[in-house]
Design a protein that fits this description.
The protein is an alpha+beta fold and 168 residues long. It has 4 helices and 6 strands; from the N terminus they run ααββαββββα.
Length: 168
Amino acid sequence: MTSEDSDRAAIRELVCRYCRGIDRLDMDLVRSCYHDGAIDHHTGFDGSVDEYIAWVEPKLRGFDGTMHLVANHLVEFAGSRALSETYGMAVHWGTPSDSPRLNFTSGFRYVDLVERRDGEWRILERYASREWTRSEANLFMPREGPGPAGRRDREDYVYRLRSQLVTP
C-alpha cells in the first residue's frame, strides 16, 4: 500500500468515525474528527466546530435514531492537506411516525478540507450539503421481534465489544 493509499484510507475512516459519533450521540468522537479552530457549514448552521456540536446535539436527540451511510469518496492531496468529497445518505426516524420533520432520508455530500498534523488527519473546514430530502413519514415499521437493537449512547454494543479489543 502506498503512502497516498494509506492516507486515503485514514481520511475515509475519519468520515466514518464522524458518522458513528453522530449516530451514537458520541459528541466526544464527533469533536475528535476536527482540528481546533475548525469551521463547519451545515444546513441551518455556520460556525466553529464547538458551536456546531452545541447546535447539532439537541437536534439529534429529537430523533429516535439516525443512520449515516457513506458511499462515493474522492480525495485530492496537496502535501499535508487534502480535499475530501463524500457522498452519502442519512436516514432519520422519530416519534410521531407521521411527522415528515422527524422521519426522512436525505442525500448529502461532505466536502472537507482536511489536514494531517502529527500523523493524524482531521477536518479543518466542512461543507455538509443536503442535496435532496425525501419524507419517510408513516413508512417506518416496528421491529419484527426480539434481537439486537442499537442504542444512541456509549452503552451501544459497538462500545462494549470495542472495550474487549486487546493488543497482542
